[in-house]
Design brief:
410 residues; alpha+beta; Thrombin, subunit H; Pdz3 Domain; 32% strand
Length: 410
């Protein structure tokens, strides 16, 4: 079974974020030391002394004028901004935003404003634990998407969500899926503002993104960053599902994600949700240590996958798991990457495509396969019934096939 290669967290029962209150440490920048000034060169003798005197006189006058002008402008600027001595302030008060402040609909501030009405704080409580996470409204009649690990520790507990209006409303758990780490709640409300969906398949590294949620109990928090990478194979909380390791192809971002952000939306610069905030790497050997937090490496579930899973949960109460009908060798490490098959189920997608034990899949849906976890994550990203072009190696030769994915029969 594959395991996480580095520390990660979820908002599970024993995580520290519920009571963590680690004070921030301010690090002062050292004061730079000015370089020593070189002594002036000795003046030349004779006729050059008169010329130098004239130059010095002109320079002195220019310096005095410049100094007086700079001092006057500096005093006016300081006085206008309430800085300086105890004399009367010069100028008039102006509380309007500076001209450079852009809060137009297409600005980052506009993107946050567009998405905030759909943001909720999720509370899950039973006799053992209180869990707080984030979520977002996906329909006017009260369906809400969050992470499975936000609610899974209290499967028989009480759920509520805090709306943008400040109203806290009782919620019902419709269903959840451990492989994708998606859960759906429902509240008895209508006329809500659903979030606008983006397209996670059209993202590129460097795209600006904003993480929304309730990190460390701070409601309606927005943090800004970029897409750091795509298709990172990350373990799902339910890492071992029926003996099969579970991974998802995550969006990596440096937008600050902390405990409590789980389940909240990762939005693009237009305010459209393109991911569901899910986990971080803390940089701590003990990822459960109190105070562990964001170091700029966070992950989100691509919204195209989350939307498909959430729709199935809303429709049937459960989600299907996408499979290829073959097991994958966890110990295989190919020189050029790839995932080695250990066997193919008779009548399954892999067998129908002509694959057999020992084949090494090197390209899946047009993307090179790094290893077994990468292939598992890419399979999970697709929906049952999707037809995917693959390349594989058999006995040193390169082959191609069309693979029709299926749903797990379990």
């Amino acid at each position: 079974m594959y395991g996480p290669e580095s520390p990660w967290w979820s908002d599970g029962q024993h995580d520290p974020w519920r009571n963590a209150s680690t004070p921030a440490v301010l690090i002062a920048h050292p004061t730079a030391t000015a370089p020593a000034l070189e002594p002036p060169a000795p003046a030349r003798q004779g006729t050059a002394r008169a010329g130098l005197g004239l130059i010095l006189t002109v320079a002195l006058i220019s310096a005095l004028l410049a100094g007086a002008l700079g001092g006057t402008l500096g005093y006016v600027f300081a006085a206008r901004n309430g800085v300086g001595g105890g004399g009367a302030l010069v100028g008039q008060s102006d509380s309007k935003p500076a001209p450079v402040t852009n809060r137009a609909p297409e600005s980052l501030a506009g993107a946050v404003k567009r998405a905030l009405p759909s943001l909720v704080t999720v509370h899950a409580q039973d006799t053992r634990a209180l869990s707080t996470g984030s979520g977002f409204i996906v329909s006017p009649d009260g369906y809400i998407v969050t992470n499975q690990h936000v609610v899974s520790e209290t499967p028989k507990g009480k759920y509520s969500v805090l709306l943008d209006s400040g109203e806290e409303v009782t919620a019902t758990l419709i269903g959840m899926d451990g492989v994708s780490d998606i859960a759906v709640l429902k509240i008895d409300r209508s006329g809500l503002t659903p979030i606008t969906f983006g397209d996670s398949d059209k993202l590129a590294a460097g795209d600006p993104v904003i993480a929304l949620g309730t990190p460390l109990g701070q409601e309606r928090t927005a943090t800004f960053g970029i897409v750091s990478a795509l298709n990172r194979a990350r373990p799902a909380p339910a890492n071992d599902v029926g003996g099969v390791s579970a991974f998802f192809a995550a969006i990596q971002t440096d937008a600050a994600i902390n405990h409590g952000n789980s389940g909240g939306p990762l939005i693009d610069a237009a305010g459209r949700v393109i991911g569901v905030n899910q986990q971080i790497i803390t940089g701590s050997k003990d990822d459960k240590a109190a105070g562990s937090g964001n170091i700029g490496i966070g992950f989100a579930i691509p919204i195209n996958q989350a939307r498909r899973v959430a729709t199935e949960i809303m429709t049937t109460g459960a989600a299907r798991r996408t499979v290829i009908g073959a097991s994958i060798d966890p110990a295989f490490q190919g020189a050029s990457g790839g995932a080695k098959l250990l066997g193919a189920t008779e009548g399954g997608p892999a067998a129908k495509a002509g694959l057999k034990s020992g084949d090494v899949i090197t390209v899946f849906a047009g993307r090179p396969v790094q290893d077994g976890p990468d292939l598992i994550a890419q399979i999970a990203k697709q929906g049952p019934g999707a037809v995917v072009a693959i390349e594989f190696q058999r006995e040193g030769g390169k082959r191609t096939a069309q693979l029709t994915l299926a749903a797990d029969s379990k």
